[in-house]
Protein 1
Amino acid sequence: MTNDQRRMTKEARMTIAENGQERNQSCTMLADYFGLRISSFLRHWVFRHSSLIGRGLRQSGAVQPGKRFSMHPLLRNSVVLILAVLCLIATQTMADDVTNPPAASKKPQRSPTFGGKQFWSDELIFHEWRIQRHALTSYCRLLDEEDYRRAGGTFAGCQEELERLKQKLEMPPMRGRIVLVLHGLLRSRQAMQAMCDYLEENGDFQVLAVSYASSRRDMTAHATSLARVVTNLGNDVKEINFVGHSMGNLVIRRYLGGVCAVVPKKRRLPRQTVMLAPPNNGSKLAERFRENNIFRSFWGISGIEIAELNKLEKHLATPPSFGIIAGGRGTENGNNPLIPGDDDFVVSVEETRLPGARDFLVVPALHGSIMENERVQECTLRFLQDGHFVASDQRQPIPIDVSPPDDRPGDQP
């Protein structure tokens, strides 16, 4: 090849790379534009259709029939914010899919992603690397520790590329004790980062935050992805533990309720499980709004399953050793007037209880930020290490009712 040919080839490659960068920027800008346009549309729609929302609230029982519903500006802006965030997540995910098509070459290029929000579920985690599957298309991708896409296509293809990179980068295998941390409904693994950092800095565990498409699939599908994560941890992992927030605990219980049968026996069951604000008995708040189409569209399939937990309950198991931390004010009335009893604004203290718990604790924390509470982090680590939140002689276990059915309260004629 002559010098002129080499120069022309180099210029052509630079042009292709520049065009690719421009395409990525254009797609991202397009997604942002549509996200902002949708947000603007929603603001005007909510402002003009407050009566429609009021009718839905009256149907759910949140507003008494016959009373005029006037949406407070703060409430209206909150609804708009929730809708806008969901739309931006969707449009950002669209940009991620468009700007990161399957690699055609044998040497895939690194390209940025959002790490998986509401449309991607982890199926393999190796240190901070992960293989994710798209909830709608089943397309898989390999992300590195900075959430850059390294490969895409089939799971086997992504796994093959990961094995190649393990050798090239001399990455050590995962060993010893693992803590898998699961987020709640409409959240992402980034919401659990403070908890993960604390456990890893102060404990002797390797902590892995698990992503799953919480609003796009049902509980069984989430549990199946979790089983694949546990299966793919490797033979050098001797122990697993779980920390779940909110709905993440139902995913854990569904995993234990039969889905985990595919996992090798030596790491199938967790040594310890810590439940943070779990809706173990469903959610009165979810039940109140379950017939409202607006709220059903937010929650997705899994949210509806929480509202109708009696249908799912027979498929949920109890962890071998677990503790529960609930949020509340410690008073008769909680933070949310729509929920009877003490609550964390989303789930009541009573709804978190589950017979068989080794320890139970109520802390002054709200549902969405309980995992960032310093005391909660300390107690979580203590339970993972020692099986109690405060001290062994201060445990508050929830006993299992082993009395005959005829002797239980409420069973007498």
Note: The CA atoms of residues 130 and 143 lie 5 Å apart.
Protein 2
Amino acid sequence: MTHAADTVAHARNTPELDQPYTELGLKEEEYARILQILGRRPTSAELAMYSVMWSEHCSYKSSKKHLAQFGAKTTEEMRARLLVGIGQNAGVVDIGDGWAVTYKVESHNSPSYIEPYHGAATGVGGVVRDIISMGARPVAVMDQIRVGDPDHPDTHRVLTGAAAGIADYGKGLEVPNVGGETVFDPSYQRNPLVNALALGVLRHEDIHLANATGPGNKVVLFGARTGGDGIGGASILASDTFDENKSVKAPKPVVGDPLLEKRLIECCLEAFAADLVEAIQDLGAAGISCATSELASNGEGGMHVDLERVPLRDPELNAGEILMSESQERMMAVVAPDKLEQFLAIASRWKVEAAVIGEVTDTGRLTIDHHGERIVDVDPRTVAHDGPVYDRPYAEPAWQAELNADAAERLPRPGTPEELRAQVLTVLASANLAGKQWVSDQFDQAARGNTVLAAPDDAGVVRIDADSNLGVALAGDANGRYTKLDPYAGAQQALAEAYRNVATVGAEPVAVSDCLNFGSPEDPDAMWQLVRAITGLADACLDLGVPVTGGNVSLYNSTKSADLPPGHIDASINPAPVVAVLGVLPDVSVTVPSGWSRAGLDILLLGSTAEELSGSVWADVVHAHLGGHPPAVDLAAERALARVLIDAVRGGLVDASHDLSDGGLVQALTESVLRFGVGARVDLAAVLQRDGIDPATALFSESGARAVVATGRAEAVEALAAEHGVPVTRLGVTDDDAGLQVADQFGIEMAELDRAHRGTLPALFG
């Protein structure tokens, strides 16, 4: 882009002018379509807008066709709680008594590689603003971080920076972090995944939609000044495989200011409460390009903007750069003229800079002038909603059958109790199973708000109403190893685990948000993974009766190089469909943690264990192996288990509840023991006999639809399980002094167990 004014008139008169559309992430055929839409070449400002809004990140052009399954596979019963569904900044779910919550999980992957601290921090800020724009107060965040090999020096840079960024931003907002994931895998070495979730609370009557309506209403930009942050980020970083050797791949990092974000939150909420705004749109990816085109196209008319009125941090920015800037802590509001003075007064009181930059029109056009010259004149729908929709080719990878044939069940298992004990300690101390307190301890422990449960418990629990104790539970999960082995089943397993985690605290699962992290859609292998995962997730949501309310798709997460071309088994990341499940708790005082706090309780295993070791942490850590098929998904069994867990918790039948997933039974027992420092004595004999398995399989299998509970009313839990057809076995008892004792196999004292499980991350990262 040139700094000279490229007006609409100039564009009409210079059709031959070469434009850098490929550098902005546009394909030749996409540029040709823009020419057809406009009947002329675009101005440089229009080109900036189309490029950023037609990117994968903003348009979902490669996934939109397949994402339609989420709506198509939603029943009226599933929609009963949905107040706002897919298509707005975030979905809104009715939780009863006039209360609603809005929540969303999305990605900030490439920025978190370029500059981990600011990339992760502003990822939190971006999803929080999505929540604010719906009229909700943000009350909790979660994080899902995936980085490379824990021993790689760059992993230290990425993880320490990302964790600190998430922690500091949350601290500045005074919004508690209630859980998340930290996963290590070499496939994420040059392409970390940093996904953030935000939860907001509002009354039904407070819901606001981002629609620019009412000709004559003013368009107000408020918050931080616009700078050169992240220019081209959404268009470039989300339209090509990441390669740090290409300078164009590194837009200037976006720098966040959480204290300004906090003031912006309060400003928005006060303006909403006083009924001063018709709509608010957050500015994140694609900045003003997104906000103006989305607001205008979702409204009933058009919009005019005078770009020179935008407050700038860098006066040297040209029009295209202003439109593409991804500076944080900015919002755009539509305000009626008679309410403008009040709105500006609120902004001033919160020390939030605000400027009227335009107004809503009845022209059906989005027009933008810069210093009196027309630089944009477009139908806003063509920018925001009418981008290309691709039917990308996809096919099962050539390597998939061989990968699936290489089952982990054939691998040697420990033959003696001593060997089993050694492997248990090795697995428990591995980076992916080790305690994540090193990460969670960085979060502000003083800013707990209405947090009832948080990490390391299976789900975060937040009180919504202090009078009734109404609350919600949140859990998020993804398993890249499972999804690589079988994308359909892997996505379903992510949903099943999050669903189980919510049920363990006694919450009824009601809704889903997802962030789909996959490779290049131009690689048929990665596209096949994406399509199969979407289909699997949509099918499972339909079966479980939990609708998808919104989310994010992040593509081009690839490690492309000369050595790993498309079609290679490791050309992309292990695909990671992050699934976040929301559950409702009528009374948050009736919930349980994921570990037992007293001796003398019976430990029960709910569910049955199969010989399912492929994709397991045991196979990875002990044998450096990935192959076979992931554990079978039994959604009927998941529903039955959830019913037992919910009824047991709400009936006061259990003191603790912990699902079985990564690491299997031994991981669940270890985390339950270490949660409050109360040991366990268990005997596997009944499980071995009933399920026909060996001790290693009993401890390491990752079969789904299982949980461990501690109870002083074992008979009542057993009767409840029998009522719902859930297998149940008495494993043993809780014991203050036991550590972890497995009869006829091994014993591990509490201190050794603690060192093995909690010492890994501090040793790696300080």
Note: Residues 458 and 501 are 5 Å apart (CA to CA).
